[in-house]
Design a protein that fits this description.
Length: about 375
Amino acid sequence: MAPKRPDGAGAFPVPVEPPAPRRPDPAELYAALDLGTNSCRMLIAQPKGNQFHVVDSFSKSVQLGQGLERTGRLSRQSMARTVQALRICQKKLQKHSVRRMRLVATEACRRAGNAGEFIQLVKRETNLPLEIIEPEEEARLAVVSCAPLVSTMTEQLLVVDIGGGSTELVWIDLTRVPPMERPKALMRLHLGFTAAPDSPFPHARVVDWISVPLGVATLRDQFNDVQDDAGRFALMSWFFEENLASFSPYESEQEREGFQIIGTSGTVTTVAASHLGLKRYDRNKVDGLRMTSDQIDTVIRRYLALGPVGRRADPRIGRDRHALIMSGAAILQALLRVWPTDRLSVADRGLREGLLYAQMSADGVLEAGPF
C-alpha cells in the first residue's frame, strides 16, 4: 500500500517578505548644508546612539567661486548654477519634512562683494535660510566632525580642513584630558574654543588656530599662469607655507610620538584612495585610514610623474578632482614639511558632519558612551 501523501505536500512555500524599512519620523531628522567655493553638499540624518544615520544626501560641483579671485564678485553664471543645485536640496528637505537644519556658506561668500545679493537671491528662489559663517566657527565644526577619529594616545592634535577657498588649521593640546575622554572633549568644542571656567568636564585646550585664505581653487588660480607643472607645484607649496608664518603654536619640530594630524578634505581622501590603489572610491576603506608623511610624499611624487594628462586619465584621482589635486597636494606637502608625522588620519567628513553633531549635541539627542 502506497504511503499517504501528507497534507500540504507540493504546495508552494509562502514567501517571507522582509519588513519595509520604517520611514524616519521628520521630528527626528536634521539637515546640514555646506556651500563652499567649489561644491554644494548636504546631509539629512537622524541620531543613532552617539553617532547619526544618513537618510539622504546631495553633492554637486557648482564652482561658486569661479572668477572670484580676479573680480572679487560672484558671477551670474556661478550663482545660477548654485541656485539650481540648492533647488534640488530644497526638494529633498521638503520630501523628508525636515525642520531642524543649518545651511551655511563659507569662504567664497565671505570674500565676495555681492554676497548679500546672492543670499537674497537664494532666499527668493528657494526660500532656504542660507547663512555665511565666520572662519572660527568653520574651524570649530571641522574639529567636531573629526572627534571620533582622535586616538586615545594623542596628546597634541592638529586638525586640517583643506577647502576650496580657505584652509583651517587648529592645534589642540589634549594632555589634561584623560585618554578615553579625548573624543568627547573635542565634541564639546562646538560651544567655543575657550572652555567655560566653571565647566565640570576636562577640556581640550586650543593652543592656536588659523584660517588661511588659500584653498585648492584659490591657490590654483593664483599660479594658473605658470606653465611648468613641477614648477607650479613647488611655487604653490612654498607660497602656502609662507602664509603659515603667523601660525606657530610650537616653534621646534614636534615629536612624532603622541602627535596626530587629522586631515579632512577631498585632497586627503583622494591621496588615500591613490595610496590604496582604489579604482572605485570606497569610503569604508578611506575614512579613518592612517598614513605616514613618507607614504603621502610617495603618492604626491607619483602625481607629479604622471603630469596633467596622466592625472586626468587616472581613475584613482577622478575627472572631478584632477584639476584641483595638485594645489591640494601642495598644501598637504607644505604642512607635512613643517610637521612630519607617522599618524595622519584621513577623514572623509567635514563641515556637514560637524553641523549635524553640533545640532544634535545641543538638543541632547546623542547618547553617552565611547565612540
